[in-house]
Amino acid sequence: MINLKLKNNKGFAMLFAVLISSMLITVGVSIFNISIKELMISGSVRDSQAAYYAADSAAECFLYWNYVGPGSVFSYCTGASCLELVTINCNDNDISFDVTRGPINSFVIADDSQKFRYSTDPNSDIQPEANIEVTKEIDGTIRTVADFFGYNTGISGRRVERYYQRTI
Amino acid sequence: MYKIFSKNNNRKERLLTGFTLIEALVAISLLMIAISSPMMLAQKGLSSSILSRDQMVATFLVQDGIEAIKNVRDYTAINQNASTTYSPNTERDWLFDLGDCICDELEGDECDLANDDAKYCNVDSTDGLNVSSQDLLESAGPIYASFNDGFFQKYTHTVTSGNLTKFSRKINIKVSTSNLQEAELRVRVYWTSPYGIQNIETKTFMYNFESKLIPEV
Asked: In this model, does residue B185 exceed pLDDT 90?
């Protein structure tokens, strides 16, 4: 009878050890997992900041050309003498905008293919970049609406995009 | 018969005694492995947490630097027409108050902030936006922390107002050679972590357009 009891209890230590070990490993892996996620979030904040300042640089460049550029390149224009192509220069890159007139008293100066580019690391292909899109809205008064799309193809391998709009 | 049995029993007991010691040693070593692995995982996890916290702080210190410099630029633009000392529409005077930050490669300055001999300045957003030159800063733009209202931590370059933090900041401005109304602003925050020296650097461009918006006095 005693032997039977002992036999039934055999393996308990092993079971208990496996149970405790797996619990400890689960706790360790969970903490590690949470921390890695935290690190990814803080990495995204950093990448997002680069994207934001790419958009901000593009906005500064747009404002400069809007106010200071020769002949106010983004001014409203009608008639045959209007520019078909507007070119500004940011960070030694020529950025050309095709001027296309919209159907209802408005025209859009937009070209997604042209980018304001800059790199934090000149030797790297990973560059925060920004697109600029300019729209003239004629609704009683003439307004210039500029959209800036800053994005970063991510140091941590994830694309982050920040967008903002300025109306002047 | 009794003797033999007794002898055998003793041997068994002796064997069992030795086995218990080995068993205990094996058990302890297994336990050590079982405990140390998750402990190491947890420890690594906590170190990563600290790194991510530092990254967040550094990111916002970079942003603080950029915004403070832009604020000084705006201040110059607002006040420029009231003074006869600047002519911000020409050359570099739109960066008049940021003279200590301008890095000119043509004059032999090292502009890459990753290098120890890079030219840099710093700005204290908590202390009247004073721009301090490299010469006035101890070592490389160390940042101090003091507690404002006993809760919020305030970062400053003023030595007397706080405890030294692990963060240092360097700022410089490179005026474009092709357009003197364009300048590249770089801010680098770096600190020492268990994984080595970490840094966060962000670059942005500033343009001199605001002086055109303010009518001349």
From this structure: yes
